[in-house]
Design goal:
53% of the residues lie in helices and 13% in strands. By secondary structure, the chain is an alpha+beta fold. It has two domains: 3-112 and 185-286, Malonyl-Coenzyme A Acyl Carrier Protein, domain 2 (3-Layer(aba) Sandwich); 116-175, Alpha-Beta Plaits. Strands 2-3-1-4 form a four-stranded antiparallel beta sheet. Strands 5-6 form a two-stranded antiparallel ribbon.
């Protein structure tokens, strides 16, 4: 992951090198060489994804030069919100990296405390998903797109919720390959500790409005950003509403920067009339023109 960027872009390489210096250990070795099991651990996966995403953004800026536009909004799903904050200048790359590393450590500790998980409800009505959660004690964690909702909770609770959803006719239920019940009260111990870490993070006024996960509305001031980060770990990710807000403000094109293209697919499902492009590496950038 990210090795092509490292070798082909000086701007990306500087991000990777800075990451190793900031954290005091070779994160890039884990990113490039694994092993996969180590990379997938939340404590490593979060700074790794953040680092590769910012490296991709800097490589894009380097390649496009003066053609690189200022977006109307930035947004990121869950961990990606920290990338969006760094892209908007609300926090520095280094502070963001230290924060997501700490976030990963705290989330891992919460996961180790009580085994938990997440499941996607595909083709389901939101009312059905909410009823299932009310009946079992699970929580709605992500409202991703029409008919794609994610619930989460302790494993026993999640098992009950999955069974009940299937009984109530949910077309497809997929257990997600994640290590815990993110964006639920299961993460409250992590959120409380993260709030302490946030006190030492200097936040800045965002150069570009950030559409926040928990409210699906833009935030720009340090106070607004701090409030969002104080709610995000336990709050539901309102991704569908976030995209719909941006479309309502006149956005017609979304560019997903970083590893993966999940958000590009979600944008197309939420608003089929918009253009959505995923930029994961230099090949994608080569064919990208932005007006």
């Amino acid at each position: 992951m990210g090795m092509g960027l490292y070798h082909a872009s000086a701007a990306a390489r500087s991000v990777f090198d800075a990451a190793d210096a900031v954290l005091g250990f070779p994160l890039t070795k884990i990113i490039f060489d694994g092993p996969t099991e180590e990379l997938r651990q939340t404590v490593n996966a979060q700074p790794a994804i953040y680092c590769v995403s910012i490296a991709c953004l800097r490589a894009m800026e380097e390649q496009l030069g003066d053609a690189m536009p200022t977006p109307a909004f930035v947004a990121g799903h869950s961990l990606g919100e920290h990338t969006a904050l760094a892209a908007a200048g609300a926090l520095t790359f280094a502070d963001g990296l230290r924060l997501v590393r700490r976030r990963g450590e705290l989330m891992q500790a919460a996961i180790d405390r009580v085994p938990s998980g997440m499941a996607a409800m595909l083709g389901a009505a939101l009312e059905t998903v909410q009823d299932v959660c009310a009946a079992t004690g699970a929580q709605v964690a992500n409202l991703n797109s029409p008919g794609q909702y994610v619930i989460a909770g302790p494993l026993a609770v999640l098992d009950e919720a999955v069974a009940l959803a299937q009984e109530r006719g949910v077309r497809r239920v997929v257990r997600l390959e994640v290590s815990g019940a993110f964006h639920t009260e299961m993460m409250r111990p992590a959120q409380d500790e993260l709030d302490v870490a946030l006190r030492d993070v200097e936040l800045h006024h965002a150069a570009v409005p950030i559409v926040a996960n928990t409210i699906a509305r833009p935030v720009t001031t340090p106070e607004e950003v701090r409030q969002e980060l104080a709610q995000q770990l336990c709050g539901c990710v309102l991704w569908q509403a976030s995209v719909e807000y941006m479309v309502a403000q006149g956005v017609t094109r979304f560019v997903e920067v970083g590893p993966g293209n999940v958000l590009t697919g979600l944008a197309r499902r939420i608003a089929p009339e918009v253009e959505a492009v995923a930029v994961e590496g230099l090949d994608a950038m080569a064919g990208l023109t932005i007006n």
